[in-house]
Amino acid sequence: MRAPALLLTAALTAGTLSGGPAGAAPAPAADVALGPVTKLPLPRYASLKTDRVNLREGPSKDHRTLWVFQRAGLPIEIVAEFETWRRIRDSEGTEGWVLHSLLSGRRTAIVAAPRGGDKAPVPLLAKADPTSGEEARLQAGVIGSVKSCTGTWCRIVVAQPQKRGDVDGYIRQDRLWGVYPNEKVE
User: Fold this and answer.
1) Mean pLDDT over all residues of the chain?
2) Which pLDDT score is estimated for 84?
3) How far from 140 is each of 3, 70, 82, 108, 148, CA to CA, in Å?
4) Distance between CA 82 and CA 176 in Å, rounded?
5) What's the CATH number of domain 110-177, 3.30.930.10, 2.60.40.10, 3.40.50.720, 2.30.30.40?
6) What residues does each domain of the chain span?
7) Superfamily for the 33-106 domain
8) What's the mean pLDDT in 1-18?
9) CA distance linking residue 130 with residue 90, whole number of Å
10) What is the pLDDT of residues 13-65, one digit of tens each?
């Protein structure tokens, strides 16, 4: 008999954006624009490298700090580039500029709050199959490392509280902010 699934909740710290995402960002167009600095696609997802990242009004340290993120691994979307600065958007739609060295190409995603206000946890399944057993149940706001996505399912790894090890499983791609609809990640 299978052990009951774990319920994982988001551990938020002061100064960290809380709550579920406002909605998925638009999928990049087939003819994707390339950043003028990196020549990488815009927009694109990335994550915060450190647990202290200043979000600024403009692309320099002379610009006012709008917000301080305090959660390494938080997924963000890069929407513009200027020299060593990247304009980013978070899951709640807040935009501003950060220094490129504070960003990581590591893909993470945040469990999105379902539309309609349903607060039921989202199942993390053992296989990419809705009839598969549950590995855990994830609350909106939980962040996981994206290992792969098929366009329908994503395999993610979520760190468990109390250091019991990580939980690895599959979640419907449309329940995540940090991957585009139908995007394939390898």
Assistant:
1) 86
2) 98
3) 23, 18, 33, 14, 20
4) 28
5) 2.30.30.40
6) 33-106, 110-177
7) SH3 Domains (2.30.30.40)
8) 40
9) 29
10) 323 333 333 344 444 555 679 999 999 999 999 999 999 999 999 999 999 99
Check residue 117 and give its pLDDT: 72
Both tokens assigned to 75: 């997924």
Secondary structure of the chain as H, E, C letters? CCCCCEEECCCCCCCCCCCCCCCCCCCCCCCCEECCCCCCEECEEEEECCCCEEEECCCCCCCCEEEEECCCCCEEEEEEEECCEEEEECCCCCEEEEEHHHEECCCEEEECCCHHHCCCCEEEECCCCCCCCEEEEECCCCEEEEEEECCCEEEEEEECHHHCCEEEEEEEHHHEECCCCCCCEC
Q: How far is CA 147 from the centre of its chain?
A: 12
Token code pair at residue 43: 């927009």
Count, residues in the chain? 186
| pTM across the whole model | 0.83
